[in-house]
């Protein structure tokens, strides 16, 4: 009996090892823990099937199955698909050895347990841990879903996560402060007592997390473009860990109307506006980079208000980057571009806009920012000075048009890239 219990325990541990590891380290959601518990039960059923096939060569068979399982685990781990590989091998090998014995009472018990294990795996566990989108990524995909607007994938590597939209990186927990802190803290520190904030996009909640660090903030109007992603960021453990559950804040006013309509109803309302919308790859996303949109932002700001928008790469999409600044200037903003080298995303840029300051005043005030009043992980006075520095531009700004609703051009600049700017 002791030998039987040791054998059962060994196989159960093998069957549940990767599940326990991933549930604790990678995906600590309650549903996942339930799923992995079921996997353990499936492994137990399969081990019962093995032990029910008693015979003279039983422990030789057990040793052979252990070898197969080890090989299965090794092969599955190397191919990022060891869930499928492991249990297919386990089922096949167990079935083979059970079949070697006559259909006596023990064999019937074995077949029944094997069948129960397969049913448990089929009902409660996805047929493969290899998500269909795995072929697009080198790192292991641990979560994949689709919203009405985009396909979201999350990959994992050494305890960090990468979030992708339609296979394009959105942020990584490895370095997200290098993207989000520059987008928030210079603007928040340029305005004294910024109490009313507007965020367009920003569904993952990280911008909200950074804005909430300022005690004087009383209201955050959040205008999401993708409510599916917003719901994911409110409930998925990886997003919740990244945004520190900021989306549950009672300071947030959720706005379900279109950003244009929301801005039309606001005048001299917001101290800071932050735009984190998708790259202008098509006519729909192009709308949020037009002079009409920026005029609405200008009208919605208080007299000393400021705004910032993500603007893509100043080097890989130079014309698009400069076109965003030109559209903001045409709308009445004093603009100041800045950029940073984000490890997972490459060189990225933003455009800051002021309603009242001159170019010289805006530049000098940004350079003087200290960030001593807020808890940050990366940004500093020296970092901001570095972000304001650009090399010589090899795209002449005079050749760039003004993006508008009637003359949408930024999406063409963006999709062609700098390498086709002739």
Please tell me about this protein's structure.
The chain has 422 residues and is an alpha/beta fold. It folds into 3 domains: 2-124, no CATH class; 132-171, no CATH class; 175-420, Rossmann fold (3-Layer(aba) Sandwich). It is built from 16 helices and 11 strands. The chain has a 7-stranded mixed β-sheet with strand order 7-6-5-8-9-11-10, sandwiched between helices. Strands 1-2-3-4 form a 4-stranded antiparallel β-sheet, with no helix packed on it. Strand 3 and strand 4 form a beta hairpin. Helix 3 (58-78) runs antiparallel to helix 4 (82-99), helix 12 crosses helix 13 (318-331) and helix 13 packs antiparallel against helix 16 (410-416). The longest helix has 24 residues, at 2-25. 41% of the residues are buried. The model is unreliable at 10-31, 77-82 and 123-128 (pLDDT under 50).
